[in-house]
């Protein structure tokens, strides 16, 4: 069916947008944790993603998603159970808006205002070179 004329595959994204494709790839091997599973894939123009495996795929392989542990456990029929563990969550810098900071201060939180300067930064001039 790949590229068969007359066939349109509609996919609804979580945003509600509907994408159309004419390409269906049948029984594609998908390697997860060194195990080979199979799925039919619909080709979509979504450059930020390599593949999106949906509920049909997860159900087929009796997958259980453990969000807090960042783990998916697969129990394929008549096969040994295995798991996929996602990468640890990267710590991001936390910034507060002025409004949120003010609300927290009103609630009794302690706040600090700091001005941080990189003293190792190469400024490109010596003190003697600065015109006064």
TrEMBL record:
InterPro entries: Peptidase_aspartic_dom_sf (IPR021109). Gene3D superfamilies: Acid Proteases. It holds the Pfam family RVP_2. This is Retroviral-like aspartic protease. It comes from Arcticibacter tournemirensis.
């Amino acid at each position: 069916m790949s590229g068969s004329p007359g066939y349109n595959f509609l996919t609804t994204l979580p945003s509600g947008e509907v994408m159309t494709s004419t390409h269906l790839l049948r029984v594609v091997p998908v390697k997860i944790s060194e195990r080979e599973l199979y799925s039919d894939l619909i080709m979509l123009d979504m450059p930020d993603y390599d593949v999106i495996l949906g509920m049909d795929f997860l159900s087929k392989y009796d997958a259980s998603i453990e969000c807090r542990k960042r783990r998916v456990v697969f129990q394929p029929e008549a096969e040994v159970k295995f798991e996929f563990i996602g990468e640890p969550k990267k710590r991001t810098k936390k910034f507060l808006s002025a409004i949120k900071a003010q609300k927290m201060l009103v609630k009794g939180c302690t706040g600090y205002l700091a001005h941080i300067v990189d003293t190792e930064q190469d400024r490109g001039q010596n003190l003697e070179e600065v015109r006064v």
